[in-house]
Amino acid sequence: MSTKTTPEPVRTPGQTRPDAVRLDQVSKVYGRGEGAVIALDRVTVGLRSGSFTAVMGPSGSGKSTFLHCAAGLDAPTSGNVRLGGADVGGLSEAKRTGLRRDRVGFIFQAFNLLPSLTVEQNMSLPLRLAGRRPDRAWSREVVERVGLKSRLKHRPAQLSGGQQQRVAIARALLTHPEVVFADEPTGALDTRTSGDILALLRHVVDTVGQTVVMVTHDPLAAAYADRVLYLADGAVVAADDAPTADTVAERMTHLGA
C-alpha cells in the first residue's frame, strides 16, 4: 500500500467562469427493444473552463460513454452537448471532426503512439494532420514541462511507460485545445510515475488555465481534481468539490454497495 501524500493543489475560485463543456439531458442508448442498454440517462452537467474534473463510478456506470459524448467522439441518442459554445450535435460529421481536431486534446491509457515516429514527430502529428504550423515557443514550453527535452529523437520503444504517457500528454497540449479529455491516463503506470503525470495535469490547469476532464478509478488520482462527478447506472448521482482521497474512497464504497 502506497503512503504517497497527495499535494494540495492551488485552486482559484471559479464559480463565474463559463462552461468549457456542457451536457443537457444527454442520454445514450445502445440497442433497441428489450435488449436496449442505457449507458447515459438524461445527464445534465457543466464543466467549467480552467477546471480539473474527475469522473468516477463503478464498472458499467457510464464513465467512458460520458467522456466520449462530452468530447464529441460519440453522438448521444438524445440531449445536447456544447463544447466551447458550439452545439456538437448540430454539426456535420466533417465539422465535428474539425472541432475535435482543433479544440480538443485526448490522452488515452494505451498512449496510441506511432512506433515508427520519434517523440518529436509523435507530439506534432495532430498539428501536421491539421496543416498547422507549431507554435515554437509553446512547443518548447510543453517539452520542458513534460521533461522530454533529451528524448525528442527517441522512438516509443526506447521510452518507459511514464515517458510514453508524457509524450501523449504533450501531443494533447501542443494544439492549444480548449479541453483535454483523459481516459484512465495513469491506469497502466506505477505509483510514482502516476503521481508525476497527475501533478503535470494539475500544473497545466493552474498555470495555463487548461480544462481537464479525466475518467479514473483511483481515489488518489481523483484527489488532484477540483471536482469529482460520480456516475451510477448512467446518471450523475453525486459530486464532491475539493476532494480528498479519503472522501472519494468512502463515496466509491457506498456507490459500490
User: How much helicity do the residues have?
Assistant: 25-40%
Q: What oligomerization state is this entry in?
A: single chain
Mean pLDDT: 88
Number of helices: 8
Low-confidence stretches: 1-15
- Counted up, domains total 1
- What class do helices, strands and sheet pairing give? alpha/beta
Q: State the distance separating the first and last CA atoms.
A: 23 Å
**In CATH, what is the homologous superfamily?**
P-loop containing nucleotide triphosphate hydrolases
Secondary structure: number of strands: 10
Q: What's the architecture in CATH terms?
A: 3-Layer(aba) Sandwich
- Please tell me what the overall shape is: globular
Description:
The chain has helices spanning 63-70, 93-103, 119-129, 136-146, 161-173, 191-208, 219-222, 245-256, and strands spanning 19-30, 37-48, 52-56, 78-83, 86-87, 104-108, 179-183, 211-215, 227-232, 235-241. By secondary structure, the chain is an alpha/beta fold. The protein has a single domain (49-75, 93-256), classed as 3-Layer(aba) Sandwich (Rossmann fold), CATH 3.40.50.300. Helix 5 runs parallel beside helix 6. Mean pLDDT is 88; it is low at 1-15.
What distinguishing features does this structure have?
8 helices, alpha/beta, four-stranded antiparallel β-sheet, Rossmann fold, 257 residues, six-stranded mixed β-sheet
What are the SSEs and their pairings?
Elements: E1 19-30, E2 37-48, E3 52-56, H1 63-70, E4 78-83, E5 86-87, H2 93-103, E6 104-108, H3 119-129, H4 136-146, H5 161-173, E7 179-183, H6 191-208, E8 211-215, H7 219-222, E9 227-232, E10 235-241, H8 245-256
Parallel strand pairs: 3-8, 3-9, 6-7, 7-8
Antiparallel strand pairs: 1-2, 1-4, 4-5, 9-10
Helix pairs in contact: 3-5, 5-6
